[in-house]
Amino acid sequence: MSDAAQLLSSIQDSLWLGFIVFLRVAATASLLPGFGEQSVPSRIKLVIAIAFTSIVAPALSVEPPAYSLSVLAQVALTEVLVGAFLGIGIRLFILALQTAGSIAAQSTSLSQILGGASIEPLPAMGYVLTVGAVALAVMAGLHVKAAQLLIHSYILFPIGLFSSGADLADWGLAQVARAFELAFVLAAPFVLMSILYNLALGVINKAMPQLMVAFVGAPVITLGGLFLLFLAAPTMLEVWLAALDRFIANPTQVP
């Protein structure tokens, strides 16, 4: 009977720890690129969260707090918040890529082509870059990196503890600023091409006022934008993936 009671107590502790881990993991997995997309059914997301939990929980060497209603409320709040903010930090990299695609499309007059092809209304460039980035991240082992991030997060944010509001606000502002900085860096070739194109168009219009430069220049900027996307997309995705890896390696670092 004593062995059975000891086994039952061990099972209860394991289930309690698994539930605590599931709260953080589910919040993060629901925002991960590829795994937490709107097109993924909720049942598949639940299976993904359970799979991550089965990987993360056995790798932890932490003791869960004793069960009580007050501890349950505290753990439910802190773990979901930690998981959500980790997921938001990763999700901002998708926002950066979408913003870069929108800037590039606006710069090359391609913002209205296939604007509703995805669930989120994105220009064609943003949609292509986002799909390519998600595929590249998954091929580069996003699921493994996400599991490592979740395991490491219990060192940065122990169970039941959370950062102060001031630190969290500073971190959030820094991550948003980094996302927009990354977006502009990725779209910089298209912005530069747009500036050069408009300068050349202005000079031609000044020299030949009778020429309808808009009709001549529109196909040029469209073809140039597509050709530049063909050349720059691999480098853009490589820079994006490197930035994502740096965040996963140290999510608390303020850029």
Question: How would you describe this protein?
Answer:
With 255 residues, this protein is mainly α. It has one domain. It contains seven helices and no strands. The radius of gyration is 24 Å and the shape is elongated.
Structure summary:
This protein has 255 residues and is mainly alpha-helical.
The helicity comes to: over 70%
Radius of gyration from CA coordinates: 24 Å
What is the total tally of β strands? 0
| End-to-end separation | 57 Å
Q: Compute the average pLDDT.
A: 82
Low-confidence stretches: 113-118
Major sheet attributes: none
Amount of beta strand: under 5%
**Which shape, going by the Cα principal axes?**
elongated
Order of helices and strands: HHHHHHH
Tally of individual domains: 1
Structure classification: mainly alpha
User: Please, how many helices?
Assistant: 7
